[in-house]
Amino acid sequence: MAAEVHPSAVVYPGTVLGEGVKVLENAVVGKQPALSPRSTAKREPLPPTEVGDGTVISTGAIVFAGSRIGHRVILGDQSCVRERVTVGDDVVLGRGSLVENDTTIGAMTRIQAEAYITAYSTLEDHVFIAPCVVTTNDNFMGRTDRRHELMKGPTIRRGARVGGGAILCPAVEIGEEAFVGAGAVVTKDVPPRVMVVGNPARVLRDVPEEELLPSE
Known about the structure:
Oligomer: single chain
Mean pLDDT: 94
Strand order of the largest sheet: 1-4-7-10-13-16-19-22-25-27-28
Number of strands: 28
Structural class: mainly beta
Radius of gyration: 17 Å
Strand content: 25-35%
Order of helices and strands: EEEEEEEEEEEEEEEEEEEEHEEEEEEEE
Number of helices: 1
């Protein structure tokens, strides 16, 4: 079963499409980045994009060169995956969401519409990101050279959930099975299996046992 590419889509030479992949209207796969002179992103040559079996790259979605997309992934309409991103199997990336460069997303993770996953982030397996979540990676907001060595996005551990409109500050760690309430502003690490709410986020209670993932 060959890949299916819509006539209006653009697939750059060298891109590897697995069996049953669908690239829908006006999608772009294998795009090379155009970087600002002041960009902190790496500039070495990028290998071709790889897309796993059964993945759907929906209308208007963009996948940059140097990224690897797993099997059975859904990249929603107008979503974007930047360079050197690794996406595990069975991931869903919602409409209009953006995953920046040098990020890793584990299997079975769901990222909903309009979420922003900043560069140098790590999301483990079974993570849930609600709509309009914002992650950040630069405490200096683009000033001073010191930011280059300290730039780091959040690390979101297995099974953690982040509610709608929450903001995660640079380099915070969201513990395994933790729950970040909607609209929370997370300024420091969140322990495993607790719920945090508010601005700044504070521990409200433990996550109930019945809401935890089955043990692997």
